[in-house]
Structure formats: structure tokens, C-alpha cells
Amino acid sequence: MYVIVGLGNPGDKYARTRHNVGFDVIDLLAEQNGISVTERKHKALIGKGRIAGQAVILVKPQTFMNLSGESVGDILHFYKLDPAQDLIVISDDVALDPGTLRIRKKGSAGGHNGLKNIIAHCHTEEFMRVRIGVGKLPPNGDMIAHVLGRFALEDRRLVELSYERAAQAIDCILSEDVDKAMSRYNGKVEVS
């Protein structure tokens, strides 16, 4: 079973912000695969189903971003899963341009507090992640205001295309493996 976690903050106030791209991809995966992500369990909204023939739990932690690991750690412990094999985390990345994906098998938190908390609760940096570019912080900008802000119209289109690519990449991870997904989907989306 795979646990696919989209990071974000609960509540309408944070909907469609840069920090909530993980929630947006979970919503897309749920819609594409007929999974209802409405069950309240493990400090999260979860939904169980199948993607690419694999059993999955889609997860939207409700702990707020900086405490995401509380929810993720609880789920992995409850189902006795190995983060290196069974966990995929979708998050925003301010080091990447909008429309860019970076898929990795493991790595540091890279300054992302949600990932940092997951690493702390899972006691490992070894879990798959799909990072979605949301744009760099403008000079003299405020990081909190940036990640809790919404996209400019031209960036919104790129980001929504990257959601589609992220969903395809996750399908590839589940049906083939993470190395294939990295070689096919890392990089910037092509706009036609």
C-alpha cells in the first residue's frame, strides 16, 4: 500500500495558495481515480482506493503545514509501512519556477518546514517526494506572505499543468518505479 500525502493548510483561507499545491494534486488524483478524501482519521482527511492497480491512501494532513509529520507518522505507524518504499509526499518548492517538477527518492527538507516535520516524525529522509515549483521569493520579499499568497494568472496556468504532470508522475511511480518517473517528469512543463 502506498501513502500519498499532499501538503497544505486546512481551511478556505489557504485554498489555491502556493503552500497548498500538495492539497490541489491530491484533489486531482482523487477526482481522476474516483476516491473520496473525506474520512477524518490520523489528524488528516484521507481516502482509500486504487491508482495504477496499487492500493493507496490519499492524505491531506489537517495539522497545518509545520506539523504535517504528526499525521504522516501516525499513518505509517498504524499501517506498519516503510517510508522509503511506501510514502510519496507532494509539496511546494520555492526554489523552482512555476510549472517545474522535481521528483526525488530521498533528500533533505530544503528549508521546507512541512518536510522537516515529516523527516522528524519518520526518523528518515528516505521517502519519495514530488516537489512542485511555485516561484522564487522576490527580492526583499516576505517568505510567509509569498507561500501563503496566490499565483499570478500566468503562473496559475503553468502550475495547473504541473498538477497534471505530477499526477502522471505518481501514476508512473506506482505502475513502474520512481526512477522512470524522475527521467520522464523532472523539469518544466511544455506549454503548447
UniProtKB/TrEMBL annotation:
It is an enzyme of class 3 (hydrolase). Coiled coil: none annotated. It is found in: Cytoplasm. Pfam families: Pept_tRNA_hydro. The record marks 9 as: Discriminates between blocked and unblocked aminoacyl-tRNA. InterPro entries: Pept_tRNA_hydro, Pept_tRNA_hydro_CS, Pept_tRNA_hydro_sf. The record marks 92 as: Stabilizes the basic form of H active site to accept a proton. This is Peptidyl-tRNA hydrolase. It catalyses: an N-acyl-L-alpha-aminoacyl-tRNA + H2O = an N-acyl-L-amino acid + a tRNA + H(+). Monomer. Gene3D superfamilies: Peptidyl-tRNA hydrolase. Its EC number is 3.1.1.29. Keywords: Cytoplasm, Hydrolase, RNA-binding, tRNA-binding. Belongs to the PTH family. TRNA binds at residues 14, 64, 66, 113. Hydrolyzes ribosome-free peptidyl-tRNAs (with 1 or more amino acids incorporated), which drop off the ribosome during protein synthesis, or as a result of ribosome stalling. Catalyzes the release of premature peptidyl moieties from peptidyl-tRNA molecules trapped in stalled 50S ribosomal subunits, and thus maintains levels of free tRNAs and 50S ribosomes. The active site is at residue 19. One of its GO terms (molecular function) is peptidyl-tRNA hydrolase activity.
